[in-house]
Amino acid sequence: MAQVKSLQTGIKFKDTPIGKIPVDWEIRKLGEISEVRRGASPRPINDSKWFGGTVGWVRISDVTSSKKYLHRTKDYLSDEGVKNSVRIKRGEVILSICATIGRPIIVAMDACIHDGFVWFDGLKEDIDREFFYYFLENKGKVLASQRQTGTQGNLNTSIISNSYIPLPPFSEQKKIAEILTTVDGAIEETARIIEKTKELKKGLMQQLLTRGIGHKKFKKTEIGEIPKEWEVRSLGDLCERKPEYGANVSAIDKNNDLPRYVRITDVTDDGYLLNDTWQSIDKRSAEPYILREGDFLFARSGATVGKTYLYRKEDAECAFAGYMIRFRPDSVKLLPEFLFQFTHSDFYYNWVKGMLRAGAQPNINGTEYAGLIIPKPPIDEQRKIVSVLSAMDKEIKNETDHRRNIEALKKSLMQILLTGKVRVKLD
User: pLDDT grade, residue 10 (50/70/90)?
Assistant: First the structure.
């Protein structure tokens, strides 16, 4: 990573409308360094004559599924469609102004933008496009907070044009962009490792949860072919008690002296608790809902239905919220950790989809969860399977934590480098 030098090197600052910046930096409005122009959409939007060509038509989903550069779009415009939209030169930066507000991207293909984006026409050549991209990325939350009210909040060109940008010399812009690009590369490489490990685990899970370890004889069951020595049982038959619904009380701010209040929004897709969403619940309300090691929670409704969480002692004292259902596996019959792995398998995901198709609302109740059919190996084999899959989970979690640390580093670097609080050392 490029070197930086700190404020202690005698850098002088000046006051500006956005705070102190180095004396050799400029402060300009975006409307002074470019004309902020909005995209356009062919109308009526669903007319097939606008589509079928080779020029990409940028949608918000194209941007949110990409990184810094836009290389592909879902839809492509015909010549007529291009005439009725706004074409962007390769290498220019665009910014979303509705739905997902304040998301920038650099266009790296032949593309047009609709009226949910703006671009910066005539942006001066002494402004590095990658530096400009990182400036907009860092300012995204501020821009989103300035959205106009209405059925769908959005920004207008006036708000963006009147936003200030601190501008270091061009060589410093490029060095700042180089540093942040290096950090982005580390984030993307870590993400690739995570995805590769998840794919490896998925294949291994399919093998272990259907073929087991060292089996040669198999039998057909309602959940497919499994080892002859295994059983097929319902979840309810393998638990100590009937399913229980969580508390319906309001959370309070985090207090380490009180139980943590576990809501389904606190749980990642991988089944772990997020540290930055921690809220508490008073002891009296929490008492009937305190989790003990091995307790297993299912989300019962809404967009997160089917998500699961296994309580672990290291997660602190916890009570669970009303949109979750508690099961307590009988550990003589079913290891909670084995159940956790099973609920991240394709069989479980397909079962959840089937249950949701059967009803008008996305909801699975306690009785329905109790009817979930599970392959049941002997306890010793469950333990071996859990050991293998948990080792891969640990690797995924470590890499995920590493990625979050790099993302936090990037956020800090943007705050100090894009304001000149720390200066880069130029070669």
Answer: low
pLDDT: is 322 or 359 the higher one?
322
Q: Using CA atoms, how far apart are residues 229 and 99, in angstroms rounded to an integer?
A: 54
CATH architecture of the region 231-376 = Alpha-Beta Complex (3.90)
Q: Mean pLDDT across the stretch 153-177?
A: 91
Mean pLDDT of 29-35: 96
Quote the crossing angle between the two packed helices 129-138 and 379-417, to the nearest 10°: 110
| Cα-only R_g, the chain | 27
pLDDT tens per residue across span 182-210: 999 999 999 999 999 999 999 999 999 99
Domains of the chain: which residue ranges? 1-8+169-216+378-427, 26-167, 231-376
Whether domain 1-8+169-216+378-427 has CATH 1.10.287.1120: the reply is: yes
Q: Determine whether 281 is exposed, middle or buried from the number of CB atoms within 10 Å of its CB (0-12, 13-18, 19+).
A: buried
- Which residues have a Cβ under 8 Å from the Cβ of 92 and sit 6 or more positions away? 106, 107, 119, 120, 123, 129
pLDDT, position 93: 97
Q: What are phi and psi of 180, to 5 degrees?
A: -70, -30
Q: What is the four-CA torsion angle of 55, 59, 62, 64, rounded to 10 degrees?
A: 150
**Among candidates 152, 43, 37, which has minimal Cα distance to 93?**
37
Cβ of 303: how many Cβ atoms within 10 Å?
9
Q: Which residue bears the tokens 């295994």?
A: 230
CATH class of 26-167: alpha beta
Q: Please check whether the two domains, 26-167 and 231-376, share a CATH topology.
A: yes
Q: At what angle do helices 170-211 and 346-357 cross, to 10 degrees?
A: 90
Q: Which residues contact 410 (CB under 8 A, 6 or more apart)?
A: 180, 183, 184, 187
Residue 247 pLDDT exceeds 50? yes
Distance between CA 70 and CA 90 in Å, rounded? 10
Q: How does strand 296-299 pair with strand 308-310? A: antiparallel
Q: What is the pLDDT of residues 287-311, one digit of tens each?
A: 999 999 999 999 998 888 999 999 9
